[in-house]
Specification:
Elements (H helix, E strand, L loop, with lengths): L2 H6 L15 E5 L8 E5 L2 E8 L2 E10 L4 E3 L1 E5 L2 E5 L3 E3 L4 E5 L4 E2 L4 E7 L7 E4 L2
Antiparallel strand pairs: 1-9, 2-3, 3-4, 4-9, 4-10, 5-8, 6-7, 6-11, 11-12
Length: 128
């Protein structure tokens, strides 16, 4: 799906999240290892940090093989929760997005991440 196609569904870069903030994109060659929950699906990874139903951080990273315009989408129980601003990734870039909701989530909430113009949708389940 392209950014233009996503806009037809009301999904666009820079959508504020749970606490009104917009996730921050960071380009880096560093590879960060998570502490609580971590999963990768194709070229996209998700990290969830917290305790029980409290989520302190919900972060994602993606690897880009091609030069492309992209933005990241956070999914909560099958619906778009928030998005990052759009940016251009160069071949070989790892992009990281930090999102710190610092909120309690309902038991058995499923959180997922996708990046436009990139493959993969890793998910984690929040439960107590």
């Amino acid at each position: 799906m392209t950014i233009e196609q996503a806009a037809k569904f009301g999904i666009h870069p820079g959508m504020p999240g749970l606490n009104g903030t917009i996730p921050i994109v960071k380009l880096s060659t560093l590879k960060i290892q998570p502490t609580d929950a971590y999963e990768c699906n194709q070229s996209v990874c998700i990290t969830v940090t917290g305790q029980g139903l409290f989520v302190q951080a919900w972060d994602t990273k993606a690897y880009f093989a091609n030069y492309t315009e992209t933005f990241e989408t956070y999914w909560l129980n099958g619906k778009v929760e928030t998005t990052s601003r759009s940016f251009y990734a160069a071949p070989g870039d790892w992009a990281y997005v930090d999102f710190s909701p610092e909120e309690y989530f309902p038991n058995n909430s499923q959180v997922c991440n996708t990046w436009f113009a990139n493959s993969g949708k890793p998910c984690e389940t929040i439960y107590s």
